[in-house]
Design brief:
Helices cover about 75% and strands about 0% of the residues.
């Protein structure tokens, strides 16, 4: 099958740039659906710190 569409170096550069943007966009969208483990670790360390603060002073700081 032969397509009679001219294709030059500028077209290739633009298509490559669009491919890179597409890949970055897919990674961002996939990142929204992942559960962030770092947030869980931060939340656990914050809870441990709050429990320690309440044990030492007798009341929990807010």
């Amino acid at each position: 099958m032969k397509i009679n569409i001219p294709f030059n170096q500028t077209d290739a550069v633009v298509l490559f740039f669009l491919l890179i943007l597409f890949i970055i966009g897919v990674r961002v969208v996939i990142g929204f659906f992942k559960t962030p483990d770092s947030h869980k670790k931060h939340r656990q360390s914050t809870e441990m710190k709050n429990e320690t603060d309440s044990d030492e002073s007798g009341f929990k700081e807010s």
